[in-house]
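Field notebook, page 303. I keep forgetting to write these up properly, so this time I am using the form the group agreed on. The chain and the ligand, zinc ion, are recorded exactly as supplied. Prediction of the bound pose follows.
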Amino acid sequence: MRFLPIGLVVLVGMLGWVPATLAWSSKGHRLITSAALDAVNLEGLAWSKSEQVTIANASVQPDLMRPRGLPQLRAVEAPRHYLNLELLEGKALPEERWQYINLLNRIARAGDGKSLLRPDGDVTQIGTLPYALVESTQRLAAIFAQLRVRPRDRELRIMAAHQAGFVAHYAQDLCQPLHTTVHHDGRARRDGSSPHTGIHRQVDSLLQSVPLEALDIGDRQPLKPLFPAVVRAFRESHSQVDRVYDLADELADLQENDGLDSELLKLAQERYLQSVSFTADLIHTAWLLSSSVDLPDWVPQVD
Ligand SMILES: [Zn+2]
């Protein structure tokens, strides 16, 4: 197995492979984000209705940040939406992105995951979703820290709304089980390539295709410490991959208006609840994290 230098891992290899599909449809992202904003209570910070609309609209933006016409952006953005867990062969995810890049290099050197890696042994296809999510949540905490001292600052509120939308998007991608697996659009072939069966798109549109019950996310705990909590949510989502494939026929039937299977409805309701809860938890956690962020002296201290 050839060694991939870090620079290649980060920049070049990511050009080579991206999933063909988005994640929950734009409708689905807006639906989940709106429900999460209804559920979340940030104590000192209440979003206005128009700010909630801004956040819901921002939650579809990450899928517009990887056009083929902007190749350098696409190279780094596309892998933020998934992580193919099987390719790590049981290795724990390290807490920081650069430790993770080092892990990818070790995998490339050792030939681990060889049976599932693409023929060129490219490890950059594995994806970076948990890192994108944790980093985005911490960015939101950094903006919230400023809002704590200038809660009426309009520019800050807009920045926070946009960033909250990005957090929501990655959180919701993580809750779509096919974003956690090498089997992201049909069971992967022996060489690791995807057959692109269309099941990914069917799951993406699931939430807008079924009648969802009103949600009660109950009493929630903040996600502290953040990284292990994100990894737990990622593994929970990954644990649903086989269940999704067990329901492949029912998903296809739904697309053809051939009726809604009760197990499929149950799956949709559960993924909806998990997506809404996780999005709300992350925004709430960013707010709590912001209380321990020190601002430098040059930051204005009043509105
Ligand atoms: Zn996405």
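OBSERVATIONS:
- The CA atoms of residues 253 and 259 lie 7 Å apart.
- Residues 262-290 form the longest helix (29 residues).
FOLLOW-UP: compare against the apo run.
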